[in-house]
Amino acid sequence: MTDTAIAAPAARSESGLFFEDFAAGQVYRHPFGRTLTETDNSWFCLLTLGMNQVHFNEDYAKRTSFGKAIMPSPLTLAVVTGLSTMDFGQNTMANLGWKEVTLPRPVFAGDTLYARTTILAARPSAKRPSVGIVDVSTQGYNQHGKVVLTFLRTMMVYRRGHSPAAHLPDIVPDA
């Protein structure tokens, strides 16, 4: 498939993307990367009570086929999803679900993750006229261009003029 890349800055505006901005076949190369650290790994394991020793016990992990500690897969999913928020996050009302999550390669401390998303479908919501439903396929890849995560995701996205931001008062601070 040929990339139908979205040109900046028009698509990546202050107000973000709305339901009307999405069309099947569009490809978004999300602009930021995120390097994962040992601290990210420790904090995530502590926060989620992730007790698999392959994440935090280097002596244990070196005896596995990975040869060293790996990042928890839910952390990889969270970071790759987060990388898309510059494009999708401002006007997403809700994530409706992730499915077909695959993790073809491990992620290690020091790896930098990047993401790219293809729009699969965009349709009006049958129950909520102020939003539409957008189906996407996302790939997370490392600094070597190797895919480490793929998933399908469904998002409920505000239509233009219907996001909460459209109804905020225009407050000007005192000079």
Structure description:
This protein has 175 residues and is an alpha+beta fold. It has a single domain, classed as Thiol Ester Dehydrase, Chain A (Roll). Helices cover 17% and strands 31% of the residues. Strand 6 (131-141) and strand 7 form a beta hairpin. It is elongated and about 55 Å long. The termini are far apart. Residues 6-10 have low confidence and may be disordered. InterPro entries: HotDog_dom_sf, MC_hydratase, MCH/BMMD. Pfam families: MC_hydratase. This is MaoC family dehydratase. It comes from Bosea minatitlanensis.
Task: Give the termini distance in whole angstroms.
Answer: 53 Å
Tell me the number of strands.
Answer: 7
Molecular shape: elongated
Mean pLDDT: 90
- Structural domain tally: 1
How many helices in DSSP terms? 4
CATH superfamily: Hotdog Thioesterase
Unreliable residue runs = 6-10
Name the helix and strand elements from N-terminus to C-terminus, one letter apiece: EEEHHHHEEEE
Return the CATH architecture: Roll
Rg on CA atoms, Å: 19 Å
CATH topology name, in short, is Thiol Ester Dehydrase, Chain A
> What share of residues is helical?
10-25%
Give the C-level CATH assignment.
Alpha Beta
Major sheet, described briefly? 7 strands, mixed
Alpha-beta classification: alpha+beta
Strand residues, percent = 25-35%
Task: Give a short overview.
This is MaoC family dehydratase. Pfam families: MC_hydratase (PF19315). The chain has 175 residues and is α+β, with helices and mostly antiparallel strands.
